[in-house]
Write a structure and sequence with these properties.
Helix content is about 35%, strand content about 10%. The chain is α+β, with helices and mostly antiparallel strands. It is globular. The structure holds pyridoxal-5'-phosphate.
């Protein structure tokens, strides 16, 4: 898995008692570098967990090819990428399992929760059992069969999403395309506004895929600035702009440090972390909101111009 992601990507590996192995990212996209993945595979590797960082899909064909050659499962963390496409096909249909989040900051919200997609019937059955205490035959199926018998084959959990939240999610799904379009529109405005600002480098967007624009991430170009990321961040906050940073390399968190991961493990991710800032981006923003963000960022980088 990439070093640059939300901690959940690694935590789910720990829940299984397995050991996360962090691969470095590509500087211009912050997506995991497939060449790095290949060099880290050993006979103990079980799965590849690529992350569609900021909403832009990873190199899924290359990653699937690596997985096939080494008999690994690809579990795509598409928490940022609902509605994104890779080679003209929507995310959710490329990996053995694709995992989405419906946390309130994501494209559609159910309060909390998420979705897994797979086209593998055996995996679907196991996933359904996993969320239902490990029981394969749920109450509806038992009713259909006119039988009370069920077996618990493996240890599962109560990860069922409540029906009320599912209803909310389904109604939100109907709005997804319009919201994606609005996110894209704002991202294009930012791109155009920063084209002549060398201190601000948006993430590179690759031509064979379309981001779902969960995050609009810029990389600061230190050559053109007298200030570091913290100063620029704080100046933007002082301008009333709700900037954020995604993410600290996962293994810098104390839990992972205590496991023995050392600084320097993924130098590209670490160097990128130092220059990343996430600008506000959501479908409810007005053109004027986006204009405020642009104006504030231009003002701050001009004030700190080297
Ligand atoms: C990349 C990534 N993976 C996983 C998650 C976890 O999603 P959830 O909080 O819905 O479990 C998030 C949530 O923010 C995320 O950004």
């Amino acid at each position: 898995m990439p070093a640059l992601s939300f901690v959940a990507t690694a935590n789910c590996v720990r829940y299984c008692g397995a050991t996360p192995v962090f691969a470095d990212v590509q500087a211009d996209t912050c997506l995991v570098d497939p060449a790095r993945i290949e060099s880290l595979v050993t006979e103990r590797t079980k799965a590849i967990l690529p992350v569609d960082y900021a909403g832009q899909p990873v190199d899924l064909d290359i990653i699937r090819d690596i997985a096939q050659r080494h008999s690994l499962v690809v579990i795509e963390d598409a928490a940022h990428a609902l509605g994104a496409t890779y080679r003209n096909r929507r995310i959710g249909s490329h990996a053995a399992m694709t995992v989405f989040s419906t946390h309130p900051v994501k494209h559609i919200a159910t309060g909390e929760g998420g979705v897994v997609t797979t086209d593998d019937d055996a995996l679907a059955t196991r996933l359904r059992a996993f969320r239902n205490h490990g029981i394969e035959v749920d109450a509806r199926e038992r009713e259909r069969r006119g039988d009370w018998v069920y077996d618990m084959g493996e240890l599962g959990y109560n990860y069922r999403m409540p029906d009320i939240l599912c209803a909310l999610g389904l109604s939100q799904l109907g709005k997804l395309d319009a919201w994606l379009e609005r996110r894209r529109d704002i991202a294009m405005r930012y791109d155009a506004a920063f084209r002549d600002v060398p201190a601000v480098m948006p993430l590179t967007q690759l031509p064979d895929r379309e981001s779902a624009w969960h995050l609009y991430v810029i990389r600061l170009n230190a050559e053109y600035l007298r200030a570091d990321r913290r100063q620029v961040f704080q100046a933007l906050r002082a301008e009333g702009i709700g900037v954020n940073v995604h993410y600290l390399p996962i293994y810098w968190h104390s839990y992972y440090r205590q496991m023995g991961y050392l600084k320097g493990l993924c130098p590209v991710a670490e160097a990128q972390y130092d220059r990343l800032i996430t600008l506000p981006l959501w479908a409810g923003m007005t053109d004027a909101d986006a204009g405020d963000v642009v104006q504030a960022l231009r003002k701050v980088v001009a004030a700190y111009a080297a």
